[in-house]
Write a structure and sequence with these properties.
The protein has 13 helices and 17 strands. By secondary structure, it is of the alpha/beta class. The strands form four sheets. It has a six-stranded mixed beta sheet, covered by helices on one side. Strands 2-8-7-4 form a four-stranded antiparallel beta sheet, with no helix packed on it. Strands 11-10-9-12 form a four-stranded parallel beta sheet, with helices on both faces. The structure holds iron/sulfur cluster (2 copies). The site of one iron/sulfur cluster has 15 residues, from α12 and α13.
Length: 454
């Protein structure tokens, strides 16, 4: 039986533009711009400088604390190491490489002799060195999630919901790369010591479910596919855990609190590739779609490919295009420039040219309560909005603003067209700033007290 979670909405999914289109390989770009911060955690430290020759798969960015290393996605010469615009906002230190089109493979890329004989520790180390992060957009370092969950996690879930409108890269991977997904599941089962892995897939990808089940049956893999009701945000980690296990992640907690670990479909493919070929994350599947794109497609390209090249490969942008988004329309980031490049977390590039921007001059709450019904985190968006406007930090904490996953379901359903999600991002920052201020004050008071006693 298909399973679901509390709340949610049914936006127009826009997937028909690309879900029937196989993943195409983009022509190699002349230059790639590889940001040193493509993950949750501290930015990487560049290991190369201008003029250096680099090879495909060579490590060019080293972690500094929580993070994942970054690798050259083409071979060639480093043209610059400098800040460049980044899809997640601002400018980020980036390594710019002029492609020599030789695809000269780095000696660092070594396939394990027999992946099935690797110990759990060796597998985690390979995942770490391959720079794998949550490829669905969360970009949390995968080796940290695995090593932190070993011994605690009893349910390993693969997120095949792909509930964000327009995005179809995971769906295409189910159809075109099911052996990588199922193979990755097999390794995850071994790492966590569980007897099966569950892949949750929304029912709007019936052919994807069939393709996975066929591969599971052929390979006798310890994997089951759980069909899910099509409802946004089914792919939220907490919603997925609830739909599959019936258990709820406690407020402020992570899936590991209820014994779950969740991995994205393309992350699972990356784990498989790293363990079987030694190849780190150097390529990304990106859905290029929206009413502003002449011919929407699913494209695979080297990390760091300028997004203009992806739009050009789709026939370019229509003149009326008024908005670019990196990611999906619900959780993606609107871009002020097209001078950004593809990063590990870039699942989609959307351009809009029609009347999709449903804003009004005077957003007004009519107290209809629809945002409360839609919120999958059981929050009360209408009150949170008022508290943010008045900067009432205590009330924001009391109403659990930090549990907001910024899914956009409330903003989508709101007939008053309030900028709810945007305001909650600002509200969460208010709470963080306040907590930092209080911590600094407490530390200063403690230091003064110690000084007095000295
Ligand atoms: S959905 Fe919008 S208009 Fe309705 S109560 Fe919530 S904030 Fe107000
Ligand atoms: S954006 Fe936040 S408040 Fe709005 S529905 Fe999603 S989780 Fe709830």
């Amino acid at each position: 039986m298909a399973k679901a979670f509390f709340g949610g909405v049914h936006p127009h999914d826009g997937k028909a533009a690309t879900n029937g289109k196989p993943i195409e390989q983009l022509a190699p770009p002349k230059q790639v711009v590889i940001p040193m911060s493509q993950h949750f955690g501290a930015p990487c430290k560049p290991l190369v400088q201008k003029g250096d020759h680099v090879k495909l798969g060579q490590k060019i960015g080293e972690t500094q604390g929580l993070g994942a290393p970054i690798h050259a996605s083409v071979s060639g010469t480093v043209a610059a190491v400098e800040p460049r615009p980044y899809s997640m906002g601002g400018d980020v230190l980036s390594v710019v490489i002029d492609n020599d089109f030789q695809d000269e493979l780095s000696e660092e890329v070594v396939a394990p002799a027999d992946p099935d004989l690797l110990s759990v520790e060796e597998m985690v180390e390979i995942v770490k060195n391959a720079g794998i992060v949550g490829m669905g957009g969360a970009t949390f370092p995968t080796h940290v999630k695995i090593s932190g969950g070993i011994g605690q996690v009893t349910t390993v879930i693969i997120n095949g919901a792909e509930c964000e409108p327009y995005i179809t890269g995971d769906h295409r991977a189910m159809l075109e790369r099911p052996e990588q997904i199922v193979g990755g599941c097999r390794y995850l089962a071994k790492m966590f010591g569980v007897d099966k892995v569950v892949i949750g897939v929304e029912l709007n990808k019936k052919d994807g479910i069939d393709a996975l089940n066929k591969t599971i049956a052929e390979t006798k893999a310890p994997v089951v596919v759980q069909p899910l009701r099509t409802r946004y945000p089914q792919g939220g980690e907490k919603q997925l855990c609830q739909a599959i296990t019936g258990r709820q992640v406690p407020p402020g907690g992570l899936p590991s609190a209820i014994g779950c670990a969740v991995f994205n479909i393309n992350t699972t493919c990356a784990i498989y590739r790293a363990l079987t070929t030694g190849m780190p994350v150097v390529r990304k599947v990106v859905t290029v779609s929206g009413s502003g794109v002449v011919e929407p497609k699913n494209l695979e390209c080297p990390i760091g490919t300028p997004v203009r090249e992806l739009f050009d490969a789709c026939g370019g942008l229509k003149d009326e295009t008024f908005k670019l988004i990196a990611g999906g329309p619900m959780m993606g980031m609107a871009q002020y420039t097209a001078d950004i490049s593809v990063a590990k977390g870039t699942g989609a590039l959307l351009a809009f040219a029609l009347d999709e921007n449903k804003t009004v001059d005077d957003p007004t709450c009519i107290r209809c309560g629809r945002c409360v019904e839609a919120c999958p985190m059981h929050l009360e968006p209408l009150y949170l909005y008022q508290f943010v406007q008045k900067k009432l930090v205590d009330e924001l904490n009391d109403y659990h603003i930090m549990d907001c996953m910024e899914c956009g379901a409330c903003a989508y359903i709101c007939p008053g067209r309030l900028h709810l999600t945007q305001s909650f991002k600002a509200g969460k920052q208010l709470v963080k700033d306040d907590a930092a201020k209080k911590k600094a004050a407490a530390e200063a008071a403690k230091a003064a007290e110690e000084q007095k006693g000295a």
